[in-house]
Amino acid sequence: MSGSSAPRLKDVAKAANVSLSAASRILRGERDRFGAETCERVLKEAQRLGWRRNLLVNGIQTGRTKTVGVMIPPYDSFWVDVLAGIHVVLASADYLPITVWVGDCQEMPHFEKDDKQGLSQISRLLDRRVDGLILWPSFAVAYYDHFRELIERRVPVVVIDHEFSEEQIADSIETDEQRSARAVAEHLLALGHEQITCFSSRETAWQAWAVRRRASFEAAIAELKGLEVNSFRLNQWGTNGLEVAREILSQEPRPTAVFSVTDHEALFIYEAAAELGLRIPDDLSVVGFADLDFSATLQPPLTTMRQQPKEIGRRAAQMILDRLDGDFSDSTPTTVRVGAELIVRGSTSPPS
Amino acid sequence: MSGSSAPRLKDVAKAANVSLSAASRILRGERDRFGAETCERVLKEAQRLGWRRNLLVNGIQTGRTKTVGVMIPPYDSFWVDVLAGIHVVLASADYLPITVWVGDCQEMPHFEKDDKQGLSQISRLLDRRVDGLILWPSFAVAYYDHFRELIERRVPVVVIDHEFSEEQIADSIETDEQRSARAVAEHLLALGHEQITCFSSRETAWQAWAVRRRASFEAAIAELKGLEVNSFRLNQWGTNGLEVAREILSQEPRPTAVFSVTDHEALFIYEAAAELGLRIPDDLSVVGFADLDFSATLQPPLTTMRQQPKEIGRRAAQMILDRLDGDFSDSTPTTVRVGAELIVRGSTSPPS
DNA sequence: CGACGCTGTTCAAGTATTTGAGCACATCCG
DNA sequence: CGGATGTGCTCAAATACTTGAACAGCGTCG
In A61-81, which positions are buried (b, 16+ CB within 10 angstroms) versus exposed (e)? Predict the structure, then answer.
């Protein structure tokens, strides 16, 4: 019934019996110009009325909303951790991330209907005047023009897990795929495996990381031992994981080790192996990638490359903040590569 | 180098050679007052300059920012799906969720340092003038006063998974714990189990759902068969999952079935069972709750209650939108209970 | 010829707040 | 006693629009 919407500064000023601008200055901390008693009165009234500053107005006036748009697929614990990293860093600078979904999250998180959805999401962020943008480049290529426009308007952009095919127009951050794939290769070769298969993800245009991961792995195996890796991948919609896993395990000769480009694919290998009565790691070694939340508790626990999603998130956010603080134009776009660590668990052993 | 920040309406008007207010009206869709040729010119210039409306201004003027604050723990796939549901519904109404983290997401997602963190997060949302608030009530009790203030200001609040201990002051949405727990109880009893243990989560003040879930389960078992359930729980920080699981499986007599209050606890049971050489489901039946992303691919696949997180998210968002659309004061707070479905997989069987 | 419709214009006020400039008054110094 | 200094506060413009009201120029119709 009180029907009162948010109290205005005007109300506070009136209640404390000072002018609007006096109230504004006092509440902004410019107190030395005013008497202690006046300050206290204003503060007390603001408190009593429950006044809070209106950041929208600040946004209009300063051109800074203290928000950063984030466009990533909140798909598994990897992305959740990336988000966590972003949140922590932004929060400590009193920024807030505004996250939008890409893809038809209704039914299939990893699949995007068309470019327009992503573009409209970017639009919605820009309408809110975000100060910066962190994104996973589902269709980065399609957005190039958009990026260029943003950068011209001094809205810093950081892209996660994307390699710019031509000119690099924005900052970029990714897992060091080459080193990581090599670590996996070294591990499997050291165990003595020679029949090695790689289970890649969907390798659509925007899944550049999957391509790089698989290719780096193939290259490492070839370079280290001269062996050829037989590679499989998911279909375009990522719906046939179990079928591919079955296919992988039905090869003649059967591979003794499978490197899955993420832990998700490894799950399908586990499932197919159980179906076929193959024991891990006795009959089959499995290596994943990401160290997702469930990987340590699989039976057997999954050997996997532990990425540093939180660190990736933190660095991404920090890059945005740095760009916003410092001079924007004088530094060229950079790429940060974050390391990953091989966690050896029970899913790998020498071939029998 | 162009150094241009976002173009203003003024720029568009100038470029199209019309007045500011004409440009405003045309771009807002009030076109019938203007000639087709003029409209086209304005639209074209707006497009060319990349003009986009400034929702901050709209927010100041109308008091509606078209944003909804969301405060939930993006902890596992359950919450990710809740978020997805929220996003879908809000996006279709051209709203945007602004998500803040609760808890020290740096190290321990499910643990909050103190009330103040949550309150400061709410503050940051309110400073941005969110139109509504969806939250998971880590410290809902501590926030009661806050809620009351929000509701007085006509900021609708929806609480997920929280039971108001006294007066219900906000809308609330939760999984139907009673029915769900009863379904689990019926399943285990139908299989013939009599030594049944419940593995609860941390049951801190704000984990009301865990308390309700465990208590409902105990009650159902008692009511259906007159049996007593031996219940265990995690410590206050949720750090001793494996120890508790070991303890559970070391009881004399050993339970033949364990109901885990979430799939996370079930993972610990799997791990402890593997350690002790117990086979699931031959020696031990395990039931989880939530049907998280990994549950179907465990070996054996986990029997679990499938909640409807997306539906919960959707309903929560819809409740906010309804409150915003309709008359706010005339309807009393309601509680929505969303059903869950028992998914029987390989982790349960009759006791041997 | 005057009224009317069409297509625009200008004016002014409103949104919530910030901020540079400046004013009134008191005190203090020379 | 005049001028400098400082305190406490106010005024007005600015941010980027929106919106209602009034009005102006032009062609047309009765």
Answer: eeeebbbbbbbbbbbbbbbbb
Query: From the C1' of D11, which residue's alpha carbon is nearest?
Result: A21
Which chain B positions have a beta carbon within 8 Å of A2's beta carbon?
Answer: 152
Q: Give residue A330's pLDDT.
A: 62
Give average pLDDT by consecutive 10-residue segment, chain A, 352 residues.
70 89 89 82 90 93 94 83 92 92 51 60 90 78 74 87 79 95 98 97 82 96 96 90 96 96 94 94 97 88 96 96 77 91 97 90
Residue B69 (CA) to nucleotide D2 (C1'), in angstroms, measures 62
What share of chain B in percent tops pLDDT 70? Answer: 91
What per-residue confidence (pLDDT) applies to A37?
A: 84
- Chain B: nearest CA to A250, how far in angstroms? 20
Three-state DSSP string of chain B = CCCCCCCCHHHHHHHHCCCHHHHHHHHCCCCCCCCHHHHHHHHHHHHHHCCCCCHHHHHHHHCCCCEEEEECCCCCHHHHHHHHHHHHHHHHCCCEEEEECCCCCCCCCCCCCCHHHHHHHHHHHHHCCCCEEEECCCCHHHHHHHHHHHHHCCCCEEEECCCCCCCCCCEEEEECHHHHHHHHHHHHHHHCCCCEEEEECCCCCCCHHHHHHHHHHHHHHHHHHCCCCEEEECCCCCCCHHHHHHHHHCCCCCCCEEEECCHHHHHHHHHHHHHHCCCCCCCCEEEEEECCCCHHHCCCCCEEEECCHHHHHHHHHHHHHHHHHCCCCCCCCCEEEECCEEECCCCCCCCC
| Token pair in block for residue B182 | 């009863």
Burial of B74 (0-12, 13-18, 19+ CB in 10 A): buried
Using a CB-CB distance cutoff of 8 angstroms, which residues of chain A are in contact with residue B267? 294, 297
Question: B48 pLDDT band (50/70/90 cuts)?
Answer: very high
Give pLDDT tens digits for B300-336. 999 999 999 999 999 999 999 999 987 655 678 899 9
Asked if residue B173 lies in contact with residue B319, where contact means CB atoms within 8 angstroms, the answer is yes
Choosing among B92, B96, B311, which should be mutated to test the A contact, i.e. which has the most A CBs within 10 A?
B96
Write the CA distances from A103 to A24, A100, A138, B79, integer angstroms.
44, 10, 8, 18
- What is the CA A31 to C1' D9 distance in angstroms? 13
| Residue A100 to residue B123, Cβ atoms within 8 A | no
Q: What are phi and psi of A337, to 5 degrees?
A: -110, 120
Strands A303-306 and A341-343: antiparallel
Contact A149 B63 (CB under 8 A): no
Going by C-beta distance under 8 Å and a sequence separation of 6 or more, which residues neighbour residue B27?
A: B9, B12, B42, B43, B46, B51, B53
| B212: closest CA of chain A, how far (Å) | 26
In angstroms, how far is C23 C1' from B335 CA? 59
Interface test with A, best of B55, B122, B260, B345 (most A CBs within 10 A): B55
B157-161 long-range contacts, CB within 8 A, separation 24+? B157/B132, B157/B133, B158/B132, B158/B133, B158/B134, B158/B316, B158/B319, B158/B320, B159/B135, B160/B72, B160/B82, B160/B134, B160/B135, B160/B136, B160/B312, B160/B316, B161/B136, B161/B137, B161/B208, B161/B209
Place of tokens 């159980």: A274
- The separation between CA B67 and the C-alpha centre of its own chain, rounded to angstroms, equals 17
